[in-house]
Amino acid sequence: MEETVNYPKASIIILNWNGLKDTIECLESLKKITYPNYEVIIVDNASSGYDVRILRQQYGDTIHMIANDQNYGFPEGCNIGMRYALGKGTDYLLLLNNDTVVAPEFLTELVKVAESDDSIGITGSKVYYYQRPNTIQSAGGKMRWWLGYFEPYGEEEDVGQFDDIAERDFVFGTSFLIKKKVVNKISFLDPNIFLGVDDHVYCARAKRAGFKVVYVPKSKVWHKAGASRAKAPQFPETQALIKKAAGGRGYKHLYRLFRTRFPPVVAILPLTLNLSLVGDLLLYIWRGEWQRIKRGLLRRLKRLLRVNNKSQLPH
Fold it and tell me: What is the pTM of this model?
């Protein structure tokens, strides 16, 4: 007698903002996935062109289109799609960047791992750079809480060093599977964040609520990193919101993140280290990685110099 395979319903939520070409390439790659029980929800964040009309014409009933009346930012845009999917009785919510291309097994592997342990609340893919298809952008990461440092695993060629399923402090929101019960317990992404640390904050909240966040190496996606931000200068209002997310508002959200771990006064310390050169220096000294100290300090200095133009954390 053959074993019955369970395929819970998964809703793939893709946020589009003036990214028609990228969204189409992403949707074409989704046509090849092996998972049999899924829907695709496109949330258009008030694109200025004909993105909504073209996507409806080209994909018809194979997608559900939600056309927002304004650009709500990444978290709230995703929340709108998540609310729709939950209202239709989905079991899993897959947040997928529109500037990605996915491997056929990417969703199957995410769901398989999530189903293997009731305490797993979020699973995340191995994310490669689209332009450098064997270079890992993210294999999840670890929070160095006292140093105020987000330590992503990746930024290196894939030679099998991140091939094990592993619990993480965070996985990138580029490809991010959430169980329905996580949303039922901790609610949605923070709508006050326009762009930036939303995935880190959500993972921290989920872990604090008792859920595991797990990296799944067999789930592979390729990401055109920075594609959305590259368009921003063409749209001054959105560019202004991104700058605010990188300035005072961004620091406020970072502080809220550290508040998930520390009392109010203590949370100021990791926030200060996150914004200073000291954070990188302490991290590399603690790990004994002397060759990386110079490189790390230069990278942090460059980030401080451009903080008014970009959000702190790339997606």
Answer: 0.79
